[in-house]
Amino acid sequence: MKKQIAMLLCALSALLSVTTLPALAAVEQHYPVSVEEYTYGPLDELRINKVYQLSLSDDPGGIPTEDFDRNGRHYYLLDLIRQDEVGVDTQPYTETITMDSNTGDLSAVLKQLDGEMEVTTEDGYTGTLILDHTSVKVEVKGYQTSTKNLSATRTYPSLSDADLSFIPTTITDGGKTLTLADVQWANDGTFYTATAKYTGTTSSRYATGYTATASYTGQVAKTNCEVITYTAIFGSTKPEEVEPTPTPEPASEEEVPASLNLGTNYLPVLGIVGGVIALLVVSCWGYQKIKERKMRT
Description:
By secondary structure, the protein is of the alpha+beta class.
């Protein structure tokens, strides 16, 4: 008797573990990347397309396909379409170039630059970038100083004597100050004429070269991922056109329908199994009592 009861308890425990398995293996639900509502057919039936993008490792079982109500209409699944695609990853990118220039004129440098640039990044992204004119800058690479000799001649006529005191020691020529370097005298018998030579130097600073920088901006892309696109197509009807769902008849203790979902309706199942086990226990106990009475008589 004890052995029979233990076997019944083991069967009940196994049934309880089976009914809890679906809850532990829940599938992750996916969300659409776009939802489109439109009319279809001559009757302008309202339809909704929900688009999902999944990776190869994602389980499509997480795509919701249940009926739903929206804006006073009842929607139901018509088709679920799968399409394998190749994903493209796009991102912004800026490339800055530096080049030598023989001029510091910004307009002249702009004429030397191309309006577009084809690029390929180190991690495999490619694209066409556009010159950002506001980013163009020109800087001096370096400076040098040059020195130039200057000279000028002055004539001083009608001098009473060949005396240097009559000759200025410095003059200004072209904005530069020159110093007396030599005097040549001439005499016409009455007066002297002095021809004076003045010399000096001037220095100027000039750029040895220019460096121009410019930035090109745009989008680069790389084909690097496979995706699967699912399109769930839902048709619709007005709420009054939806037929009521018939209420299923309760199953008897002798027969349990094979389509019964143990994962979501385990409480009725447990009630039925518990009742059956209780009847078996009572029957075994009664049978044992009757057997003991016969043995006494």
